[in-house]
């Protein structure tokens, strides 16, 4: 089902499907191949009988307004998207990866917006990423990927590098994020990319360094479902365990044959677990 796209002051808001509404936080960075409104996660939720609301962050895809590229912007856009879609909060909220971090931020900063919370491959902030995430899945003594990731990542974190740098780092992490690497969607890197700047929302790599909700997790009092792939290198099991331990009413579902995207690698179980949680008032079985 193709989403309906509405424009609100330069913000592109997507709606798709029928049924109870769910707000899906988009990825705040530039490491995406398509808008969240057209992504697999949104499609899965539509197939579960939900009405999906999402948006393009400013500076990405169909959103043309000037970007601030910070967490406050993602929260403000979430509230605006619901208004444009005609959805009155509270509403179920879903996020994956950095979108999950934004969903967590919404639950902390604007608790009246969130009815239930689903975090897929999430974390509490940059401190958790620094402790547990890529490149810790590699050994500097045995994997050249560790060195490549550090070299590319530091350049981008410091505001340097090119579009080629950005895409090479994306591809390196993407391929490591699946149990079956054939499912990774790699972006071609051309000779011309070396002379082009990174995408505008690459600034998120610097902005996210100031985000850390680990000391505020207990403020999330709504029912929460935390989903993690057993082999996830980006937001590994300790990231999800920290979320579950800190949130007031959260459960964790571990997907044993998945990396960073269980909704791709174990699609049927993902539908069952998320569908049960959303349909049964916030309860789930692993």
Explain the overall architecture.
35% of the residues lie in helices and 16% in strands. The protein is of the alpha/beta class and 286 residues long. The two termini are 29 Å apart. The chain folds into 2 domains: 199 residues, Alpha/Beta hydrolase fold, catalytic domain (Rossmann fold); 71 residues, no CATH class. The mean pLDDT is 95. Strand 5, helix 3 and strand 6 form a beta-alpha-beta unit. The longest helix has 15 residues. The chain has 10 helices and 8 strands. The chain has an 8-stranded mixed β-sheet with strand order 1-2-4-3-5-6-7-8, sandwiched between helices.
SSE order and pairing:
Layout: E1 4-8, E2 11-16, E3 21-25, H1 40-47, E4 51-55, H2 71-85, E5 91-96, H3 98-109, E6 114-120, H4 126-132, H5 144-157, H6 163-176, H7 204-207, E7 224-229, H8 237-246, E8 250-255, H9 262-265, H10 267-279
Parallel strand pairs: 3-4, 3-5, 5-6, 6-7, 7-8
Antiparallel strand pairs: 1-2, 2-4
Strand share of the residues?
Answer: 15-25%
The poorly predicted ranges are: none
Summed over residues and divided by their number, the pLDDT gives a mean of: 95
Structural class: alpha/beta
| Helix fraction bin | 25-40%
- Gap from first CA to last CA: 29 Å
Widest sheet: strand ordering: 1-2-4-3-5-6-7-8
CATH topology of the largest domain: Rossmann fold
